[in-house]
Design brief:
The complex is a heterodimer. In chain A, strands 1-2-5-4-3 form a five-stranded mixed β-sheet. In chain A, strands 6-7 form a two-stranded parallel sheet. Chain A has one domain: NADH:ubiquinone oxidoreductase Nqo5 subunit (Beta Polymerase, domain 2, 2-Layer Sandwich). Chain A contains four helices and seven strands, in the order αββαββββαβα. Chain A is α/β, with parallel strands linked by helices. The longest helix of chain A is centred in the last third of the chain and has 13 residues. By secondary structure, chain B is mostly helical. Chain B has one domain: Cytochrome-c3 Hydrogenase, chain B, CATH 1.10.645. In chain B, the strands form three sheets. In chain B, strands 1-2-3 form a three-stranded antiparallel β-sheet. In chain B, strands 6-7-8 form a three-stranded antiparallel β-sheet. In chain B, helix 3 runs antiparallel to helix 4. The longest helix of chain B has 30 residues. Chain B starts with 12 loop residues before the first strand and ends with a helix. Classes of the chains: A alpha/beta, B mainly alpha. The interface between A and B is large, with 36 and 40 residues.
């Protein structure tokens, strides 16, 4: 099925939810409201004509100052049976950065959503195990946000300071003598 | 006689495997809860090699982010480069010349062989077959030597460039590669004699880490992991890039989705890769190796040294970066580990607004609890080897 036809199908069924449809280089992105994302994904996965069985990727994008809603969660879907692809983008405001998790539909979403939480601070409701994944558990801030400095925070991470302290303590032992 | 009753109390044991463990292929840490020999719970911890490549990519021009992709999957950096340049070319709307496309296909398949062969060596070494390991490195060494004659670098090559490849290949390189291609099937037979029908090997891998076709798709697995379960999905066939639509190759498939079938699939892939390289050498067209689109590609170096206009052109492109049109693109390529995807959001500046790397190893590491729980500790090693992850790519 052509990506624009898929977009029409979603528009037809969830007319209130679709905000915009964009096409660039034959790839179609559907911009959605976040509230019924789980329902839309369930429909895309279960409908035999669409059957998006493979969730390629989930990631976040931070539009600081560029858009009204600060974040977007981007889902790339592909159907191995029908060989068609679509991109869903759900808008998430900064004041309430929460969205439903799609782990119940695609098990592979688990780590992608954890990473998105880690990097952007977007909370996925009903996620089985929402913890930080790449950064240390006690890290402060979310690195891929646009207001996060590239060089990292001024102050060293507490975990690293603890390692340095321990190294200093062990220096007291003169191993060579 | 007095009967002595002995009651044994068993308790669960939690151990930490890694991050410094030779069989975890990098810095993967697994927290295992054991009941005797059986794994009850397995929790993978990743992120020890997190360098923030996505964040760095957002702050560099499209040219300058290319060497970062070498550091993703550092044992097959050629394939990452090909994936990156394909995505950027799609975003810019340019196309590499035919000769460059064939060269890229060729070097990408060389990268696939070198990656699979190191996987083969380490995987069988983990399980206890020491012999193939050094033989495998002998073949890998030849490919790395060929890379060295090609571009001067052995590991972090950065040879494919946006709009083509860095330099044309020499006849000397082609001759040497052709010699390798002719010899390689014999070498494969050697490995297969050592491993494929080996009784110990089969005992350790057949029926271990089974994953069904539906589950594999649902978990988002790609590459050898998915095809080991019998799902026919290969980006090279489904959405051909470079010259893959002009070469003939088969996609090897497994049936049972266990460690042994994944092994067979990857062995088959190496043979197919060899076939592709041979066809590329035979069909290699003549012509330029860099696209002629001055907005996005650098001028030829010899002209830069002679001519003022070209010098200015190079200066502007390097300092400001090629300006991409506003839009967003997702482009996937088949790397040895699976589907490597790049997602770019461009706001019309010289740098990507958002660069996302969809790393196959990251997805594959997430399936470890499912594969390991309920099995033995020794099978954890077989599973880690079989999913073929590189932590540089997993953690980015």
């Amino acid at each position: 099925m052509k990506p624009l036809e898929i977009a029409d199908k979603i528009k037809e069924r969830f007319s209130d939810e679709v905000l915009d449809v964009k096409e660039f280089r034959e790839q179609v992105a559907i911009i959605l409201k976040k509230n019924r994302i789980l329902e839309i994904c369930r429909y895309l996965h279960d409908d035999p004509g669409l059957y998006f069985d493979y969730l390629v990727d989930v990631c976040g994008v931070d539009y600081l100052g560029e858009k009204e809603k600060k974040f977007e969660v981007v889902y790339h879907l592909y159907s191995i049976t029908h060989c068609h692809a679509i991109r869903l983008k759900a808008e998430v405001p900064e004041s309430n950065p929460e969205i439903d998790s799609v782990t119940a539909i695609w098990a592979g979403a688990n780590w992608h959503e954890r990473e998105c939480y880690d990097m952007f601070g977007i909370i996925f409701r009903e996620h089985p195990d929402l913890r930080r994944i790449l950064m240390p558990e006690d890290w402060e801030g979310h690195p891929l946000r646009k207001d996060y400095p590239v060089k990292g925070p001024e102050e060293e991470w507490a975990g690293f300071r603890a390692v340095l302290d321990r190294a200093k303590r062990f220096k007291e032992f003169e191993w060579n003598e | 006689m007095e009967q002595i009753e002995k009651t044994f109390e068993t308790r669960e044991l939690t151990i930490s495997m890694g991050p410094q463990h030779p069989a975890t292929h990098g810095v993967l840490r697994l927290v295992l809860t054991l009941d005797g020999e059986t794994v009850i719970k397995c929790t993978p911890h990743v992120g020890y090699l997190h360098r923030g490549i996505e964040k760095l990519g957002e702050n560099r021009t499209y040219f300058a982010a290319l060497p970062l992709t070498d550091r993703l999957d550092y044992i097959s950096s050629m394939n990452n480069n090909v994936g990156y340049v394909n995505a950027v070319e799609k975003l810019f709307g340019i196309e590499a010349p035919e000769r460059a496309k064939f060269i890229r296909t060729m070097v990408a398949e060389m990268g696939r062989i070198s990656s699979h062969i190191i996987w083969l060596g380490t995987h069988v070494l983990d399980i206890g077959a020491t012999t193939p390991f050094l033989y495998a490195f002998r073949e890998r060494e030849r490919i790395l030597d060929l890379f060295e004659t090609l571009c001067g670098a052995r590991l972090t090559v950065s040879y494919p460039r946006i709009g083509g490849v860095r330099n044309d290949i020499s006849q000397e390189f082609l001759d040497e590669l052709y010699e390798f291609v002719l010899e390689f099937p014999d070498r494969m037979d050697d490995y297969e004699t050592l491993v494929t029908e080996n009784r110990v090997w089969k005992k350790r891998t057949v029926g271990i880490g089974v994953i069904s076709a539906e589950e594999a798709v649902n978990w988002g697995l790609t590459g050898g992991m998915l095809r080991g379960s019998g799902v026919n999905y290969d980006v090279r066939k489904h959405a051909p890039y470079d010259a893959y639509d002009r070469v003939e190759f088969d996609v090897p498939l497994g049936e049972n989705g266990d460690c042994y079938d994944r092994y067979l699939v990857r062995i088959g892939e190496m043979k197919q890769a060899n076939r592709i390289i041979k066809q590329c050498i035979e069909k290699l067209p003549t012509g330029p190796v860099m696209a002629d689109s001055p907005k996005f590609t650098l001028p030829p170096k010899d002209m830069v040294l002679k001519d003022m206009e070209h010098l200015i052109h190079q200066f502007v492109l390097i300092t400001k970066g090629p300006v991409a049109p506003e839009g967003e693109i997702y482009s996937a390529t088949e790397v040895p580990k699976g589907e490597l995807g790049f997602y770019f959001v461009s706001d019309g500046a010289g740098k990507p607004y958002r660069m996302r790397v969809r790393a196959p190893s990251f997805v594959h590491a997430s399936i470890l609890p499912k594969l390991c729980e309920g099995g033995f500790v020794a099978d954890v090693i077989a599973n880690i080897g079989s999913i073929d992850i590189v932590l540089g790519e997993c953690d980015r």
